[in-house]
Amino acid sequence: MAVMEIKNISTFYGNIQALHDISISVEEGEIVTLIGANGAGKTTTLMSICGITPVRSGEIYLDGKNITKISPHKIVEMGVSQVPEGRRIFPQLTVAENLDMGAFLRNDKDGIKQDMEEVFFLFPRLAERRNQAGGTLSGGEQQMLAISRALMARPRILLLDEPSLGLAPLIVQHIFEIIKKINEERKTTIFLVEQNANMALKIAHKGYVLQNGSIKITDTAENLLSNEEVRKAYLGL
């Protein structure tokens, strides 16, 4: 069953068309990745899903419900959590306070406390820094915090925007291992937008290649890794 379906959406910034009639399907329990160069429209796709950048035409469905015209906070209430590009944690708040912000729509105190301990188990480094201001963390630690904050909402689908951006290779490897763990152990459906195509395709089940706002190739992640066109354009091979 598709948790999320994007059907023929087109999105504009003023008179400039950023997305051209794109369609994407994310099945329950999958990691689906959207890869492409800078400026291809990857972040615009996420902003369209979240209702931040309204679509001009087409429809977006979550669990079969049309969410195309729904306000962003309602979309969050329905189970969509985004980890934005650049992390955007609250730098003045502590790690624990940032996590509390992720659960702002919830009122089950025991459940929130349990989930916070789960993310501390997932990211032991955050547990060590729970009372430290978010702005004093390293880039990798801030990315861990951004992911954890999104998980605190107990999402049906987790949207990740360029989680490898600006991080050292070893940290990137660790972050992607955690993303795979979240999918496998927490059964969280993940839609991953990523410029590092090699890393994304290695953990994904299915992939879409976005070029100039249009979907050019759709296939299993395994097939995309061996696709000659993809290898030359995105894998540097």
From TrEMBL:
PROSITE patterns cross-referenced by the UniProt entry: ABC_TRANSPORTER_1, ABC_TRANSPORTER_2
Keywords (A to Z) from UniProt: Amino-acid transport, ATP-binding, Hydrolase, Nucleotide-binding, Transport
GO biological process, one term: L-amino acid transport
Source species, domain of life: Bacteria
UniProt entry tagged with the keyword Cell membrane: no
Family to which the UniProt record says this protein belongs: Belongs to the ABC transporter superfamily.
Protein name per its UniProtKB record: Fe(3+)-transporting ATPase
UniProt keyword annotation of 4Fe-4S present: no
EC number: 3.6.3.30
Database matches in PANTHER family: HIGH-AFFINITY BRANCHED-CHAIN AMINO ACID TRANSPORT ATP-BINDING PROTEIN LIVF
Domain ABC transporter: 4-237
InterPro entries: AAA+_ATPase, ABC_branched_ATPase_LivF/BraG, ABC_transporter-like_ATP-bd, ABC_transporter-like_CS, BCAA_Transport_ATP-bd_LivF, P-loop_NTPase
GO molecular function annotations of the record: ATP binding; ATP hydrolysis activity; branched-chain amino acid transmembrane transporter activity
